[in-house]
Q: What sequence folds into this?
């Protein structure tokens, strides 16, 4: 599932909550990987509200993981990540927007952004918790093009919610 919103004023909070309510009633949709170049949450709003409800219910089947550029002021969402309840990945916002463009055009995403930092697979990669390191639904690999090092980022292809 992909959400596009550069500020909190734009994310589809209503849709997020309704999808979660549908999941609680029917068990579907489930195992969502939410990929976004912004944070559709703030304390007690959007994804943070859904995360809070997941923590209260003790049911973690709705969201499998996140690829979010910034986890911001969303304490319940952060708790899901820290407690290893969901996969968590982080690309810089520019890499994330480039990745969306690459998915749309069917081309690889390569960049020098992140070389030698925590994003580099020789260090931590993009994995924010053990579940992400284990599942590797989103990946970063070191590649060479004409002798120069680049990072190649990939993530599971985007699907639709039923």
A:
């Amino acid at each position: 599932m992909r959400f596009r919103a550069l500020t909190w004023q734009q994310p589809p909070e209503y849709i997020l909550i309704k999808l979660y309510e549908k999941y609680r009633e029917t068990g579907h949709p489930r195992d969502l990987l939410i990929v976004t170049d912004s944070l559709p949450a703030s304390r007690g709003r959007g994804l943070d509200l859904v995360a809070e409800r997941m923590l209260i219910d003790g049911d973690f089947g709705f969201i499998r993981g996140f690829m979010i550029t910034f986890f911001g002021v969303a304490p319940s969402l952060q708790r899901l990540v820290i407690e290893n309840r969901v996969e968590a990945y982080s690309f810089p916002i520019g890499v994330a927007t480039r990745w969306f463009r690459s998915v749309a055009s069917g081309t690889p995403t390569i960049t020098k952004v992140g070389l030698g930092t925590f994003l580099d697979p020789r260090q931590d990669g993009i994995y924010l918790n053990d579940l992400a390191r284990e599942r590797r639904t989103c990946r970063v690999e070191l590649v060479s093009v004409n002798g120069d090092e680049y990072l190649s980022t990939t993530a599971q292809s985007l699907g639709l919610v039923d």
